Amino acid sequence: MNFTENYKGIKIDVQSVNIEINAAVQEEIRSSIDKLSKFTQNINAVDVYFKTEGSGGNAASVVGMRVGIPGPDVFAEEKGEHWIPLLKEVVDKLVRQLKKAK
C-alpha cells in the first residue's frame, strides 16, 4: 500500500510492501510530523517506509523515515515488532539529528 498526502504544506509519501497501513498508523505519521516541525520549520517532504524482514517467527517490522529539509536530509530507521512504537523511536532519532544540525 502506497499513498501520498499533503499535510500542512508538507508532502508525505508512504510506501509499504504488502502491508496495509491502518488509520491509527496514518494519524501517528501526522503527529510525528507535528513533533518534527517543532525543531525545524523548513520541512519540504517526508518519506516513510514500512517493510517486513524475515519470515515466520523471525519476521521483524522495519520503519524508515527521511525528512527533506534544506541541506542534507535526515534519515532514521528502526526494527522491532509494532509500527507505532517504531515510528516514535524513529522520530526520536530524527529529533536528535535535527537538534545537532542547528
How does this structure look, described?
A five-stranded mixed sheet has the order 1-2-3-4-5, with helices on one face. It has 102 residues and is of the alpha+beta class. The longest helix has 19 residues, at 83-101. Helix 1 (23-37) runs parallel beside helix 2. It has a single domain, classed as 2-Layer Sandwich (Double Stranded RNA Binding Domain). The chain is built from two helices and five strands. It is 33% helix and 37% strand. This is Ribosomal subunit interface protein. It comes from Cyclobacterium qasimii. It holds the Pfam family Ribosomal_S30AE.
Summarize, please.
It comes from Cyclobacterium qasimii. This is Ribosomal subunit interface protein. Helix 1 (23-37) runs parallel beside helix 2.
Topology:
Blueprint: E1 2-7, E2 10-16, H1 23-37, E3 45-53, E4 60-68, E5 74-80, H2 83-101
Parallel strand pairs: 2-3
Antiparallel strand pairs: 1-2, 3-4, 4-5
Helix pairs in contact: 1-2
**Adjacency order of strands in the biggest sheet:** 1-2-3-4-5
Structural class: alpha+beta
Uncertain regions: pLDDT < 50 for 5+ in a row? none
Task: Give the number of DSSP strands.
Answer: 5
Mean pLDDT: 93
Name its key features:
2 helices, alpha+beta, Ribosomal subunit interface protein, single chain, about 100 residues, about 35% helix, Double Stranded RNA Binding Domain
